[in-house]
Amino acid sequence: MSTLPEPVERLLEVALVGELSVVNDAGRPITYPLIPLYDGEKVYLTSSVLFSRKLTHIKGNPRVSLSITDPVAVGGRTDRATIQGDARVIDEDPHGGWERLLPIWERKEPAIVAFLKVRVALPLFFERSLIEITPRRALYWPAGGAEVAPMVTPVGAGTEAA
Amino acid sequence: MSDTPLGRSTPEIGAADGLQRLATYPYAIATWVEADGYPVSVALAADVDLAAGTATFDAPAGLSVPTDRDVSLTGSHIRPQPGYGYDERRHVTVWGRLTPAAADGGRLTLAASAAWGWDEAEVPFFEYSERSVGRARTYFDALSRERGTPVKPRLSFGFLVLRATRLPFLSATIVPVVLGIAIAATHGSFDLVAALLTIVGASFVQLAINVSNDVFDTAQGADDANVTPTQFSGGSRVIQYGLVTFRQMATLAFALYAAGAAVGVVLLAVRGSPALLVIGVVGFVVGLGYTAPPLKFVYRGLGEIAVALGFGPLMLLGAYVVQTRGALSWEPFVASIPVALLVALILYVNEIPDRRGDAHAGKRTLPVRFSRRAVIRGYEAAAGGAFVAVVVGVVAGVLPIPTLAVLLAVPLALRVRSGLEPNYDNPYGLMAVMGVNIRLHLYVGLLLIAAYAVVLVVTAVAPGTRLFVG
């Protein structure tokens, strides 16, 4: 079941990078650039255990947002979006559990498969957890500029003005 | 936040520095936490005032930006590489509180108070990863507590053996041992079983040295302190990564030494000689004492000499006397000189990127002790010496004329020399140079072995052919 407006889905599908914002235990937002992976329903990101502070923050506060803002990372598109949602860290098997998303990841970063074949060179980089985001609200700027209010779409409901 | 003994995963950035970096991005992403607890981000244009330590932007339409909590401004950059992915990764985040400037048409001003970021042009990805190993350990520890059972990183058995023993470096043993056997064969001594046993035993010893090197370097803090390891330097790091425990590595080292010693005892029993016994004992002391207290040769600036001795004359003469049952001659000794110099240069060049971590751990290697200029001059002298030794050996009538084929490898030495200067402070640029340097040792060894194969063939098919000068 699709949960996001179609233009936001298109952005997620092409974006080489998005900005994941999490909230630390002091209530401060912290932003991490990551590759967004979208399966048509939920948004996934993966994080190496090397850079796992974000995972700890999510376990403490699952409310996150993911923004697609960089025209360079979306093939020149100028529209922008932010998806707010509830995140879940999936780390039952850091060694291989994340590999189910490899086909989607490979479409955006083909080199990752070659790197994985020589994981002996970077063993901890390939110990990874999944971040699964269930979208709750999407903010969409068709022209990209913040001078116009975003179209806001609660999940499962129609579009509303911000 | 300190993830490694040498400091943070990323260099500390002050608020002013963060603002300066933020100003280089084409737009900023403003992020704050809304009343419902969800963060929200919006891309906008921000004007940075470095003197005032602020960034000012128009209030985004339709959104209410809070002034009672931290707001961040993030700049992020990648360069897409079609068919590959992307590179030129960098990002910076600046935090601060907003003050509304109502008189300024609804513009908001952020007074920067903190910043964080990463630029792979400043901290290469591999170094960033290495500096973050402590974070990975913390995460696995937390997972283990959550589940009540140890959760550890894994590698397949084959990859683990490859990494833990540094198996690909066995060429350092194979070259001198096979060369010693080949020289003995040209002197009329060859026993296939003894030759195979020698190769197997010497390989066990080298793997034992590799593993014990990691054990003692970990015990003395050198590997923990090194945040710029490469595939050629900085040890196997299996202990640091939590792939193998310290105790398991110590046990493996002991088992490999025991296997090597067992083969040595068999060889002593069937091909024994006082010369072999002396070479074996000296080799054991040099190998174990390389990093082990109290000798710790490598910590005293004697590592290169120990490696040259161990993987040059000792290996080569040991293999030779096994075949000749103790008879010695000058020829294998002279032939071992280029091998010894070039294997020592592998260590020497590999120590260049390790020098900060080595210095931190009190490891007084030559690149730690000497200036960049002196280290490069040292390389020139030793590499040149390797080739000169062969030429002098041939002119003196000690080495056969075909060994002059090693001169074919001179261009490799020149490539290493020319790569040292521009990459001296760039561990990852130096990796390619280290690869060529390892090939230099291997190719010179193979050319020497090939030269002796030619001697064997020529002697067999055309006896009386002059193969030595004089």
Topology:
The complex is a heterodimer of chains A (162) and B (470).
Chain A: H1 6-14, E1 18-23, E2 29-34, E3 37-38, E4 43-48, H2 53-60, E5 63-68, E6 80-90, H3 102-108, H4 111-117, E7 128-141, E8 151-154, E9 160-161
Antiparallel strand pairs in A: 1-2, 1-5, 3-4, 4-7, 5-6, 6-7, 7-8, 8-9
Chain B: H1 15-22, E1 28-33, E2 39-44, E3 46-49, E4 54-58, E5 71-81, E6 85-101, E7 107-119, H2 125-131, H3 133-147, H4 157-165, H5 171-186, H6 192-219, H7 222-225, H8 246-271, H9 274-288, H10 303-324, H11 330-360, H12 366-369, H13 372-395, H14 410-423, H15 430-461
Antiparallel strand pairs in B: 1-2, 1-5, 3-4, 4-7, 5-6, 6-7
What can you see in these coordinates?
The complex is a heterodimer of chains A (162) and B (470). Chain A is built from 4 helices and 9 strands; from the N terminus they run H-E-E-E-E-H-E-E-H-H-E-E-E. Chain A is α+β, with helices and mostly antiparallel strands. Chain A has one domain: Electron Transport, Fmn-binding Protein, Chain A (Pnp Oxidase, Chain A), CATH 2.30.110.10. Chain B has 470 residues and is an alpha+beta fold. Chain B folds into 2 domains: 15-120, Pnp Oxidase, Chain A (Roll); 157-461. In chain B, strand 1 (28-33) and strand 2 form a beta hairpin. The chains are: A alpha+beta (162), B alpha+beta (470). At the A-B interface, strand 1, strand 2, helix 2, strand 5 and strand 6 of A face strand 1, strand 2, strand 5, strand 6 and helix 3 of B.
Quick synopsis:
The complex is a heterodimer of chains A (162) and B (470). Chain A has helices spanning 6-14, 53-60, 102-108, 111-117; strands at 18-23, 29-34, 37-38, 43-48, 63-68, 80-90, 128-141, 151-154, 160-161. With 162 residues, chain A is of the alpha+beta class.
Low-pLDDT segments, ≥5 res of chain A: none
**Which structural class do the helices and strands of chain A define?**
alpha+beta
Structural class of chain B: alpha+beta
Question: What is the number of strand segments of chain B?
Answer: 7
Amino-to-carboxy terminus distance of chain B: 70 Å
What is the name of the CATH topology of chain A? Pnp Oxidase, Chain A
Spatial order of the strands in the main sheet of chain B? 2-1-5-6-7-4-3
Q: Would you list the SSEs of chain A in sequence order as H and E?
A: HEEEEHEEHHEEE
> Mean of the pLDDT scores of chain B?
92
Largest interface: A-B, 62 and 60 residues
C-alpha geometry of chain B: elongated
- For the record, the CATH class of chain A is Mainly Beta
* Record field, number of beta strands of chain A: 9
Q: Mind telling me the C-alpha Rg of chain B?
A: 29 Å
Would you identify the CATH H-level superfamily of chain A? Electron Transport, Fmn-binding Protein, Chain A
